[in-house]
Specification:
Length: 627
């Protein structure tokens, strides 16, 4: 038997000659390789450790340079990347200039789409299958979806569609009973029922045999008898949800049994129409630390392996904006029992897990269902509750119409959106940067948009939001807030009022959210060059502080806006609109994220690259000031 098999895998074709024993050794080598590499780069370890055998079995049964393989979310594509020619570059995973942490067609023909958000794979797979059918192309399509992501509404919409049109596709349901945290929802309980009933498959097969052997059902039985039989069959048939959606259901199978998977997937390749293979896997498999704590190792920070399978994480943990948010939310909730927190499957990432520890009855996890979470918050608010929906900016993109139609149009609902990870997020890259929220919220009538300059101000803004009716969105970034940089006291948070942080006559800098720190530092640097800049913490992108902008325009004749948000439609655009509408003659320089998708890299690297670091901001300030 070969050893060091991984080194010989340049493409999936190299898997074909391997024996079962060699494949099993390869699976073990891949797990070791994954753990060692992700330990250095950080990344989505636990999900990838759980999907090694499924990935190998799929690549043995199909040729995905021709057929198509779509991963849902895409965070579990590392094994796929390793065997599709990217092993040599794997050490650059998620690093600036290196390979991405998600599927990427620019890297490989084996990746049909860029992905990063959940619950899209079945839809895009149905689209591919329909496209191939229309073209008379016999290519096969496979979608891999987790038990967390399948609870998202798009999956049901896609199955509903494919089940009727009978598109030819295979869905692999990778069921590890976990999203990032434990999977929630009734559908998840249903899957647990299937998973935990080892006899279910046998019973189902027996029932199918019995019913198939009843001769000429439609002819020999009356309509009523026939319907009765269908009902009995439906009751005894535990997979009726998938059947009702028009999918043939197979499984549950052991998702780590390579031989079983090969047989099953090989057979399914030849069955036409929509079908689902339910494979049960274990998240973090093969690395004790990750299987013991799959939530932490879902998206792991770099770590060191101490003893066999035992990890230590590196780097000290700093107090983050998320920590400040949850501390402040708990403080307010102690005083106000109407405050209820909602998360869409991100209890740890948003800090809501800690809120739940203190207020278990006032915490709701709706699953990976962002659109629903917004409308659900509207329902709660109608009953007098003050919902706080903590959600990453990028995932809030899923709730756009719901924010307008189900919340804002109602005018008087008290709903607060806590938009975590707003701005650049670093290694997860373009699908995860939260750089569009100001643009997709700013035009909604009545909506109030805030961003704090630090953790303490986040608390003040949260208090303001919960104390005022209507829709409010507070955006705050990933990472640690600044400490001891600004003048110590905080001006009261008043609707549409900014805060003056530094006086100056040569120009005025209006900075928003995380950029207040960088702009303030940049102004200090500029003062060393004899340039005297006013720095304003804008606080509100809507309503704007019209008075402060008008004063700055008249008194300095030069305004800079600084934001870690896309320039089109952002805070700077709002200021430009105001200046134009008021006929205020003033030079304006908008600084922010250009009109393109921003790659992955550390936030500090990206800031530098985009001219948002204190040093690069200072250069722009100096280049534009006329002394
Ligand atoms: C729309 C959206 N919401 C939230 C997330 C964050 N997220 C990434 S992976 C994940 C859990 C996915 O669980 P599952 O589909 O079961 O896959 P597993 O990691 O367990 O293999 C979540 C919530 C996301 N990527 N997209």
């Amino acid at each position: 038997m070969k050893t060091d098999i991984l080194a010989s895998i340049e493409s999936p074709a190299d898997l074909a000659p391997l024996s079962l024993a060699e494949l099993e050794s390869l699976a073990a080598e891949i797990r070791e390789f994954l753990t060692a590499t992700v330990g250095k780069t950080g990344g989505h370890l636990a999900s990838n450790l759980g999907i090694v055998e499924i990935t190998l079995a799929l690549h043995r049964a199909y040729d995905f340079s021709h057929d198509r393989l779509v991963f849902d979310v895409g965070h579990q594509c590392y094994v796929h990347k390793i065997i599709t020619g990217r092993r040599d570059r794997f050490a650059t995973l998620r690093q600036l200039g290196g390979i991405t942490g998600f599927p990427n067609p620019e890297e490989s023909v084996y990746d049909p789409f860029v992905v990063g958000h959940a619950s899209t794979a079945i839809s895009s797979a149905v689209g591919l299958a329909a496209g191939f059918r229309l073209a008379g192309d016999d290519r096969k399509v496979v979608a891999v979806v987790g038990d967390g992501a399948i609870g998202g509404g798009m999956c049901f919409e896609a199955m509903n569609h494919a089940g009727q049109t009978k598109e030819d596709l295979l869905v692999i349901l990778n069921d590890n009973d976990m999203a990032i945290a434990e999977t929630v929802g009734a559908f998840s309980e249903y899957l647990t029922g299937l998973r935990c009933n080892p006899g279910a498959r046998k019973i189902r097969e027996d029932i199918a045999r019995i019913f198939d052997s009843v001769p000429l059902i439609g002819h020999s039985l009356s309509g009523l008898q026939e319907r009765l039989l269908e009902i009995i069959k439906g009751q005894a048939e535990p997979t009726h949800i998938f059947s009702a959606m028009g999918f043939q259901y197979f499984g549950p199978v052991d998702g780590h049994d390579l031989s079983g998977l090969e047989t099953e997937i090989g057979a399914l390749r030849n069955i036409r129409g929509p079908k689902i293979l339910h494979a049960v896997t274990s998240k973090g498999r093969g690395f004790a630390a990750a299987s013991a704590d799959p939530e932490t190792f879902h998206s792991a920070v770099p770590f060191e392996i101490r003893a066999a399978g035992e990890a230590v994480t590196l780097g000290e943990k700093k107090n983050s904006y998320t920590d400040c948010f949850v501390e402040q939310l708990k403080r307010i909730a102690r005083e106000d029992d109407q405050v209820v927190a909602i998360t869409a499957a991100m209890p740890a990432g948003t800090g809501i897990k800690e809120f739940a520890a203190e207020f278990p009855g006032r915490f709701i996890d709706v699953g990976i269902c962002e659109a629903h979470s917004v409308t659900f918050a509207a329902g709660l608010a109608r009953t007098g509750i003050k919902p706080v929906l903590a959600i990453y900016s990028t995932f809030m993109q899923r709730g756009y119409d719901q924010i307008i139609h189900d919340v804002a149009v109602q005018k008087n609902l008290n709903v607060t959106f806590a938009l975590d990870r707003a701005g650049l997020v670093g290694a997860d890259g373009p699908t995860h940067h939260g750089v569009f929220d100001i643009a997709f919220l700013r035009h909604i009538p009545g909506l109030i948009l805030l961003a704090p300059r630090d953790g303490q101000e986040l608390g003040l803004m949260l208090e303001f939001a919960l104390g005022n009716p209507g829709v409010k969105a507070i955006r705050y970034p990933r990472g640690a807030p600044p400490e001891n940089i600004f003048p110590a006291d905080y001006a009261e948070v008043l609707l549409g009022k900014s805060e003056l942080l530094r006086k100056g006559k040569d120009g005025a800098v209006f900075a928003y959210g995380r950029m207040v720190e960088n702009a303030y530092r940049a102004a200090e640097l500029a003062s060393l060059q004899g340039v005297d800049l006013r720095v304003i913490n804008a606080r509100f992108a809507k309503p704007l502080d019209a008075q402060a902008i008008a004063n700055a325009a008249r008194e300095t004749g030069l305004i800079f806006t600084v934001e870690d948000h896309a320039l089109p439609g952002g805070f700077g655009s709002a200021v430009a609109e105001y200046l134009a509408d008021q006929n205020l003659a003033c030079r304006l320089r908008r600084i922010g994220i250009p009109d393109r998708f921003i790659e992955h890299g550390s936030c500090a690297q990206l800031d530098e690259m985009l001219g948002l670091s204190p040093e690069t901001l200072c250069e722009t300030f100096l280049a534009n000031v006329n002394l």
